[in-house]
Amino acid sequence: MTIQLFRNAYSLRAALTLFMVVPLVSILAITGYLSLSELEKQTEKRMQEDVELIARAIYLPLSHALEQGREGDVKQAINSAFRIDRVYGAYVYNAQGKKVAATGAKEPSMQSHELTQLAAEGNRRGQYGEFDGEEIYSYFVPLTNSSGLIIGLLQLTRQGSDFQDYLGQVRWQGLFLLVLLALLLTGVVIYGQYRAVGRYLAALMNTMAMIEQGDRTHRAPLQGPRELVVLSACMNNMLDSIAHSEAEISRRRAEQSALENRLRQSQKMAAIGQLAAGTAHELGTPLSVVDGKAQRLLRLRDLPLRVTEGLQEIRDAVKRMEHIVRQLMDFGRATPLSLHPEMADRLAQAAVSQVRDEFAHAGMQLELAGPHPAPLMLVDPVRIEQVLTNLLRNGMQASPGGHVRLSWLQEGELTGFCVEDDGPGIDDDIYSRLFEPFFTTKPVGQGTGLGLSVVHGAIEEHHGSIEVGRSLLGGAAFYIFFPPLPKPLQGDYLSDKRRDSS
């Protein structure tokens, strides 16, 4: 708990205060204390020297007056010293310690033998003493005659409170200045920390908070001192790297999911293809036998009309079964492509020629359209004709007695075909299942659900794409696009055509 509270309170501002202001104030306090102590000593010494200076000034007049026995001159001399504010009292004693003259508010109580001893020593000295509870500083000067013999003693006093009051005033002033300086330093550090670092750190923390709330696009502003700019730039780079990594991971997951789906689909299609190919192979021979038997019976003469119609119905049913078998075999076929440059209009005409009779029998309109000259495509002609034939039959079944259009396209470098009809169109909810094997919207017996699967597989083998939309005729539209034909192949094809024409 204590550690947590310390961590919460230990901010950059607190750290600057702790490691800058506190050491500076401590150094100033120690320096101030030492300086103040030295100042006190110097001040006390100067105040003592003031008393000593006064004593030296009246020393000679007092010595001469005391030697001559002129007490009036002695009193006049000490009175002149007392009139100086720095002196608290002035006293003159003879060699036996008897007081000769005195002036001042109070007289210090000193024994005569002490005074005699001080005079006998012959040295000037100062000392502190107490009188009536007050501290008094006394300065003693021996008085000598013209022969150098000690004849008396001069005592000048000054209240100790004069020293203490002045020194106390100096101490309080020093303490006040120290506190004021500490407050100023703290204020300067706090303001400087905010202006130089704090506001930029606040912006950086705001950026982190926004990112934590989910705004992954927000970035830290590049402002402030160089170190913070570098820190913000590094954080932005890190966020960009994380975003890029997440996008890359998402992309790879999507690719992996797509590959897994394609693998499952391929495995399913392979299994279905094998089943379809095997089924078609097993059905092909019996159907051929049935059709052959029916055909031979129809060659017989004098058959009843009912028998002839029955045999023809058998042959029609066999043809439908053979068509289903061919679709099954096409679905299960895994033959490699044989790619050649081909003109789009030729492929369209070849496909139309295969179904023209069916359209005419159904009373439907089959239209060919496209730009001229038609675009060149790199395709397997047989497979693409099969694709177009399946789509045309699909349109014929979707719009009985209606209109079907086959057109070739060129959009930039992409080329392709569009097969559209004027039928009811395709519901949106079945778009995703449209190319699944055996999926059909036709009634039972009218479709196998393999036609669009064969179309989709052939287009994928060509590395193309197929899209479903709404036709201008009102029904469905199937758009097929192929990759661009390489330029060298276009040149070779055109050169061959020119040689053939010449």
TrEMBL record:
Annotated ranges, domain Histidine kinase: 278-486
Alphabetical list of PROSITE patterns matching this protein: HAMP (PS50885), HIS_KIN (PS50109)
Q: Which UniProt keywords apply?
A: ATP-binding, Kinase, Membrane, Nucleotide-binding, Phosphoprotein, Transferase, Transmembrane, Transmembrane helix, Two-component regulatory system
Q: What class of enzyme is it?
A: transferase
Q: Known Pfam families for this protein?
A: HATPase_c (PF02518), HisKA (PF00512)
What InterPro entries would the database entry show?
Answer: HAMP_dom, HATPase_C_sf, HATPase_dom, His_kinase_dom, HisK_dim/P_dom, HisK_dim/P_sf, Sig_transdc_His_kin-like_C
Q: Which reaction does it catalyse?
A: ATP + protein L-histidine = ADP + protein N-phospho-L-histidine
The keyword Membrane is annotated on this UniProt entry: yes
Transmembrane intervals: 12-36, 175-194
Which GO cellular component does the record give, naming just one? membrane
What EC number(s) has UniProt assigned to this enzyme?
2.7.13.3
Protein name per Swiss-Prot or TrEMBL: histidine kinase
What are the leading ranks of the lineage? Answer: Bacteria, Pseudomonadati, Pseudomonadota, Gammaproteobacteria, Chromatiales
